[in-house]
Please model this.
Amino acid sequence: MSNHQHEEHGHGHDHGGHDSHDHSDDIEPALQTLIWKQIDFESIRTLNESESDQGAKVIEKTWPQRLNPEPFLESDADEQLLIFIPFTGVVKLHSILIRSSAESSAPKTLKLFINRDDLDFSAAAELQPTQSLELSQTSEIQDLPVKRALFGNTYNINLFVEDNYGEDVTRIFWIGFKGDFMSLSREPVEVLYEKAANPKDHAVIQGVGDQASQGTRHGM
Model:
């Protein structure tokens, strides 16, 4: 289906939806392992997004916002997407969380590449991924475990949506990550009892905040 003539920008569509309320027993486990504040939001890049910054905006959604129908990411020239997400330190990745839909615009094959900042669609199609995942056609949040031995030293990750369930474009409503995080220059941030605690480190481990980081990004 892909013609690989990806454009930088295009059009967007409104897609309605209904918010669902959160349950406290759903939130607490996520806060313990959710990687969110440790994402370098300003450096996220998304290729073939229909509007600039869509990819970053769905990743910037907090855990309480994960069921919100907007903003959403929609592909442009065809169904493929390539999203580059850098972290502010080293992540031992456990799983990828994704919410799409039960429609034919749902992503199907998701290929993961770690620690590369030079991927384009041609390279992603030819290279061996770190891992390939098969996604379901559902509006439920999918928690997709990765092979931890391969993702124990992750500085950045590329998500390559290779195809979907038949529609010309792909839509994704939320992307999240679970894992353990280590600062590039300090002890693991889980160490709360250190006497000379760095306030910046403590800000990293307070779970999911209510405000997304702001910044300027580029959709390529």
Q: What stands out?
A: Confidence is low (pLDDT under 50) at residues 7-29, 190-197, 199-220.
